[in-house]
Design brief:
single chain
Length: 114
């Protein structure tokens, strides 16, 4: 069973930046597309950034131009660089494969507030 461990979240002011990191327990990221998801209070979990095996990326309209997803298959890691953060980016962020997510990790809390 694959496990995901997310880190890098925190409290940041609007306009600030954070870099999230996700470590998988196995080489799952080299076999599947990877994604960062987020779930805000009272809302459904949504995929915000996807990176495919050929390196192409897709972003939700709400984060396009502000978030950048990347990955290093050699160390089973997926990163999410977030800039120009807004209060509406506040959520718990998770990583997983895409589509067909496996067991979810604990996620990392991102709070954007002044």
């Amino acid at each position: 069973q694959v496990h995901f461990v997310e880190s890098g979240g925190g409290l940041v002011q609007p306009g600030g930046s954070l870099r999230l990191s996700c470590l998988a327990s196995g080489r799952i990221f080299s076999r599947y597309a990877s994604a960062w998801y987020r779930q805000a209070p009272g809302k459904q979990r949504e995929a915000v950034a996807i990176i495919h095996n050929d390196g192409t990326t897709n972003y939700a309209d709400s984060v396009k131009g502000r978030f950048t997803i990347s990955r290093d298959n050699a160390v089973n890691t997926v990163l999410l660089q977030m800039t120009s953060l807004r209060p509406e980016d506040t959520a718990v962020y998770y990583c997983n494969i895409f589509p067909g997510a496996r067991t979810w990790g604990q996620g990392t809390q991102v709070t954007v507030s002044s």
